[in-house]
User: Which sequence fits this backbone?
């Protein structure tokens, strides 16, 4: 498990040419392992969709897991920005120890919330009464959500440690750990489906839990050399810069609200899909359509950590911005090639084993989302700069506008158009992303 020395220079000691910002080589050295990890992470839903698509009652299994996963992500939302917080604030060992303790406490609270939601009558109120999910889908999703409630703690712990690795340029080990996670997921999933072929959604939840525990263990081991190094232990913040629990919470609270708002989009989308045309088919098709789109667009997410780590001044930010925009444009073109050519049928039919009917339902939704990688890339650049500058409130307000726009689009779409659920979900996702982008751009400078 090696480290990325070029990126270590970029993050810790810009050195020669620091005034001009990081070089393409330095940015690539830091970003490529992060992007590879993101690609492997977004492969997870694709692997699960491939496995569930080959079960006896594939449509029910896909829909049930999609509902459970969307709710699990909503419950997990408060811990997702621990990675960016650790990248931005793990200046020394004392700061990291504080962040790790904060992450552990937050992870335990989120786990408890997940169990309350999934083990009490609150589940029926939320899923059946409010989301209007079909009863058979809701019944299959309930035990899956109970199982997924246990993944929050290892994810919180892992993200705190990953931030230290990124800040110190050791991103290659993150890629290795994510690769092991992916192999663990696939092994547990297909092994479980062989033993329990009629419990696809439950097996998928168990496989996810196993994979995140494995990854958290590997990341913890990989972080030890950094924490024990003389360079890291020798760093000390000045008294005025020392991180406190109160200061950490003040910094983190808007970011937690941001991710909580972001994850509400998944249940909102499922609710809108269930109320639109062809609800059952759309509930099955949407996770596959979204999984393919995010598989290609996913690397744009890691541009946020790249910007947070490297954009220390205007010259560095300009370099990072040009690099990130070029990559985002490339991913948009790649998605367009898949969506608008015969490759679409090959990917959806051969890889995902989606029926011809579900392929046709998904196609216009994929075409709507073709610009998603570019939108995500620009959002990541702007958010990374704001987080580095401590302007986390602006990140929260941008996501608030995203969710409000998405909800309004779903409501109007159901009321006024004959669009299928999957097309409506894609349109609402794009509309929310564009509004968020416009707000971030307007508030780009702290």
Assistant:
């Amino acid at each position: 498990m090696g480290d990325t020395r070029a990126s270590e220079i970029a993050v810790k000691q810009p050195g020669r040419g620091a005034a001009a910002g990081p070089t393409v080589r330095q940015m690539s050295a830091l970003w490529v392992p992060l992007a590879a990890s993101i690609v492997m992470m977004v492969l997870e839903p694709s692997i699960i969709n491939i496995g569930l698509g080959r079960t006896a009652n594939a449509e029910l299994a896909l829909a049930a897991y999609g509902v459970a996963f969307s709710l699990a992500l909503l419950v997990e939302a408060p811990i997702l920005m621990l990675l960016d917080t650790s990248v931005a604030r793990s200046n020394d060992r004392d700061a990291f120890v504080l962040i790790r303790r904060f992450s552990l406490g937050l992870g335990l609270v989120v786990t408890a919330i997940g169990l309350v939601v999934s083990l009490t009558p609150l589940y029926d109120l939320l899923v059946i009464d409010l989301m209007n999910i079909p009863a058979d889908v809701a019944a299959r999703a309930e035990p899956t959500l109970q199982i997924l409630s246990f993944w929050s703690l290892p994810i919180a712990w892992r993200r705190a440690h990953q931030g230290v690795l990124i800040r110190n340029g050791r991103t290659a080990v993150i890629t290795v750990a994510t690769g092991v996670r992916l192999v663990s997921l696939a092994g547990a999933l297909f092994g479980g489906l062989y033993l329990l072929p009629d419990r696809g959604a439950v097996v998928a939840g168990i496989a996810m839990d196993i994979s995140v525990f494995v990854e958290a263990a590997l990341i913890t081991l990989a972080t030890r050399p950094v924490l024990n190094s003389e360079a890291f232990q020798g760093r000390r913040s000045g008294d005025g810069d020392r991180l406190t629990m109160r200061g950490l919470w003040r910094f983190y609270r808007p970011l937690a609200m941001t991710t909580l708002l972001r994850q509400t989009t998944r249940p909102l989308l499922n609710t809108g899909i269930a109320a639109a045309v062809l609800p059952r088919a759309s509930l099955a098709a949407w996770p596959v359509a979204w999984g393919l789109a995010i598989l290609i667009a996913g690397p744009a997410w890691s541009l946020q950590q790249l910007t947070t780590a490297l954009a220390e001044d205007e010259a560095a930010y300009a370099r990072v911005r040009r690099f990130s925009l070029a990559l985002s444009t490339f991913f948009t073109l790649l998605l367009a090639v898949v969506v608008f050519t015969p490759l679409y049928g090959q990917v959806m039919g051969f890889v995902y084993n989606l029926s011809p009917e579900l392929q046709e339902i998904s196609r216009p939704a994929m075409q709507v989302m073709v610009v998603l990688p570019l939108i995500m890339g620009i959002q990541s650049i702007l958010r990374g700069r704001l987080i580095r500058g401590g302007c986390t409130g602006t990140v929260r307000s941008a996501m608030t506008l995203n969710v409000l726009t998405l909800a309004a689009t779903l409501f109007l779409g159901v009321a006024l158009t004959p669009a299928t659920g999957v097309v409506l979900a894609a349109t609402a996702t794009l509309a929310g992303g564009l509004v968020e982008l416009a707000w971030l751009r307007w508030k780009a400078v702290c």
